[in-house]
């Protein structure tokens, strides 16, 4: 049985968001695009992320799709920055990350 179009668009969008995390974190490993393998992986994740965002935006409103995509990328990158690169995890920073979660869920729940 095939997935309904709206549901498929959300799957594409969430996959695009996770790939945005991958390419954003990948930038740290490219050393300014001087390292070949991480650079190629980062560019591949970027291209696939954009492709999936474009597919999702065929069905979802572009404002919702873009905001959710950016939100997933920002949240995931900030969380991984704490764990991978020892970036600060102050109470305020964690609180703002939680606000991103609320925003992403709110946009999903209110999408038409």
Brief rundown of the structure:
The two termini are 24 Å apart. The protein is mostly helical and 112 residues long. The chain has helices at residues 5-30, 36-57, 62-85, 91-110.
Series of secondary-structure elements, N-terminal to C-terminal: HHHH
Query: Which stretches of 5+ consecutive residues score pLDDT under 50?
Result: none
Distance from first to last alpha carbon: 24 Å
Query: Can you give the helix content as a percent range?
Result: over 70%
Oligomer: single chain
Strand content: under 5%
Q: Tally the helices: what do you get?
A: 4
Count of domains: 1
Q: Mind summarizing the main beta sheet? A: none
Q: What is the averaged pLDDT score?
A: 95
Computed over alpha carbons, the radius of gyration is: 15 Å
- The number of E-state strands comes to 0
Which class best fits the helix and strand makeup?
Answer: mainly alpha
Shape: flat
């Amino acid at each position: 049985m095939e997935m309904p179009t709206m549901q498929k668009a959300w799957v594409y969008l969430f996959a695009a968001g996770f790939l945005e995390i991958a390419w954003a974190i990948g930038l740290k490993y490219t050393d300014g695009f001087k390292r070949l393998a991480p650079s190629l992986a980062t560019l591949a994740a970027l291209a696939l992320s954009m492709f999936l965002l474009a597919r999702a935006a065929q069905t979802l409103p572009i404002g919702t799709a873009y905001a959710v995509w950016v939100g997933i990328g920002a949240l995931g990158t900030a969380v991984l920055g704490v764990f991978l690169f020892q970036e600060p995890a102050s109470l305020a920073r964690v609180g703002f990350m939680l606000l991103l979660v609320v925003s992403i869920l709110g946009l999903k729940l209110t999408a038409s």
